[in-house]
Amino acid sequence: LSPSPPPPLSLPLGTTANGTTANTGAPSTLSLSTSPFPIVRVRRSSEIGSDSDRKGWVMKQSGMSVQWNRRWLVVTRDTVMYGRTEHDDTLKSVPIDKDSVVSERKMQGVKFVFEIVIPAANKTKKLMVSAQSYDDMNGWIRSIQYAIENMRRGTDEGIPVTKTRSSSRSFFHRLLTKTITRESLTPDLVSDNRPNLLERIREHENRFQNDREFRRKLVMLQAVWRKRILIEARRIKQLRYCQAVMTEVVNSENTYVEALERIKEVFEEPLSKLRNAKALRVAEIFRDVHPILLTHRTLRDDLSAIVRSQPIAQWPIGFAAIFKRITPYLKQSSPYIDRFDTIMNLVDTLVRDKEAQKVLLEAQKKSNLNLHAHLIMPIQRVPRLEMLLKSLLEHTDPNTTEFRQLNLALFDIKLVAAYCNQKKQESDKRYQLCTIALKVKNIPDTLNILDANRQFIHEGPLRVYVPDTKMLHSFTFFLFDSMMMWVDTDPIGDMTYKGSLSLETGKFHIERELSQMHVNFLPASMHAPSFVSLGFVLDDFNTLLVVFALSLEQKAEWIRKFENIHGGTSYINGMTDL
Q1: From residue 420, how far is each of 224, 289, 382, 383 by CA, in Å?
Q2: Where are the beta strands (DSSP E) in 184-291?
Q3: DSSP secondary structure of 412-457
Q4: Residue 151, by phi and psi: left (phi above 0), alpha (psi -120 to 50) or beta?
Q5: Which of 71, 151, 267, 444 is 20 to 30 A from residue 303's alpha carbon, by CA?
């Protein structure tokens, strides 16, 4: 069930200056019963009593227990009264305050419940009431809301407005409390005299030909207001988020610069005073930190100046211009990234020195971070800036100048970040090749493991069938982009070179499954289907290997690595002619 709708609104048409009704040929009343918007009843203060006064029998919950008792309830324009009988002299009176609240409540086992909360100086009064039906409950709530609204506005000031079919503010309430813009009913209605606004509307009603034209103007005005409010709310939300991101950029840049300055003051200067500083190559560790510090100090100062001197709306343009100018200098991180592994090795040497170790421990107490944690920051900073600019761009209007400027700055930052990442990847590759060359013994010079164009791909164990011994031997295989090498590992972990295969296109072939001919070469103990399924053949026309993986997953991974080397499977076939 739902409450019955209120009667349609009827307003008297406007009057002329001498108080007579204007003769415009329009109907004597303006009916808004067909309006698509919530219907609002507007009454004068002299008519309040008929809507706010209400009396009847209800069930009220006792304040001392959960028991429900039948009570006589009376609501006037400023008071709620209740008692056991209908006699006025026995009713308890609770005055309604402007801060009072009435709302529907859901309770198990009791229907049509609403709560009245009336603040007081000593104690807040709460009344829990159950009506006889849904319509009766809504009638009580409307009457109490009307009384509360009456207390908020005052009975002698203005015209009280109540909401009957919508929880949102009524259109006429906005007309009374807002300043009308040029999109209002007529240009002449623009006035700062808000109390007389409704009277001015009535004075201009005779300008409209009929009710439909008047309703259309009201609907258009309401739509303009809603659209403007939504646009402004969206713009303010985006601006607040952008402000938070740009503040994070400035704060993180300030923290980063302070960390670089701490490296110089707490670590570099004390270590440079050691007697064996030259032998420990202290100057080489901090050589590339100084230009990075100067660049980011300039960036921090420029961003801070924008925040202090310009309004928030101008921050995105200022930030974009600064990043556009400073981005080329951020490439100074690349030499540092190239030497990062060397720097870490030098730091490890410092840690092993007793005199330098004391300096490092003292510096760590002052900065709360060790030297390794400080030296990794320049590598992390450029990707961090890229992420912040992306977040800022996502919440900027694409149709603005700020978006275009920030997009250009982000593009330059991406290039620098990609450049730094590329240098870091190249450094990692060289480090891997150097590590393999150092830990594997007896590598022929013809292999040239440290070739600058060589790329390490994969490492793992495989079992190889050796025909001389008719047994399987486990080797560690190293896969590169142009060759494959396998080594033998002794119990203490030393590796010795055993052989290699060329992966040049047209020479190297791989057979995914063992043919019957290969199975016949194996001992009878290896003919089990589950074991044969783990095998595959590698051949470069000089060396042929029958290898077995430890599992089907490992076998699939190795074959996938081979396929990715040349971007295809042209060298993988059935090997039927072996």
Answers
A1: 51, 15, 8, 9
A2: none
A3: HHHHHHHHHHHHHHHHHHHHHHHHHHHHEES--GGG-TT-TT--EE
A4: alpha
A5: 267
**Distance (Å, rounded) from C-alpha 29 to C-alpha 32?**
10
Residue by residue, DSSP assigns 503-533 as: --TTT-EEESS--HHHHHHS-GGG--HHHHT
pLDDT given for residue 57 in this prediction = 92
pLDDT at site 291: 87
Strand 483-489: give its sheet, edge to edge.
Answer: 440-441, 495-502, 483-489, 471-480, 456-466, 544-548, 535-539, 509-511
**Long-range Cβ pairs for the range 174-183 (8 Å, 24+):** 174/225, 175/201, 178/225, 180/221, 181/224, 183/220, 183/221, 183/224
User: CB–CB of 373/364 below 8 Å?
Assistant: no
Residues found in the chain: 578
pTM of full prediction above 0.70: no
Amino acid 549: pLDDT? 92
* Chain centroid offset of residue 503 CA: 47
Q: Which residue has the tokens 């690595």?
A: 561
Per-residue CA distances from 387 to 247, 254, 261, 393, 411 (Å): 14, 17, 24, 10, 12
Name the nearest CA neighbour of 96 among 43, 48, 52: 52
Minimal CA–CA distance to 42: which of 229, 154, 221, 171? 171
Strands (E), 96-244: 101-107, 110-118, 125-130, 161-163
Cα separation, 567 vs 564, whole angstroms: 5
Q: In Å, how far are 160, 189, 215 from 222, measured between CA atoms?
A: 20, 15, 11
Helices (H) and strands (E) in the chain, counts: 18, 19
- What type of residue is 282? V
Residue among 323, 266, 320, 316 at smallest CA distance from 299: 323
Q: How many CB atoms lie within 10 A of CB 307?
A: 16
Q: Specify burial of residue 56 (Cβ count, 10 A radius: 0-12, 13-18, 19+).
A: middle
According to the model, what pLDDT value does residue 541 have? 81
Largest CA distance in the chain: 126
d(CA 115, CA 129): 6
β-bridge partners, 125: 118
Intervals of the chain under pLDDT 70: 1-52, 88-89, 121, 154-215, 423-424, 426-428, 430-431, 452, 505-506, 566-578
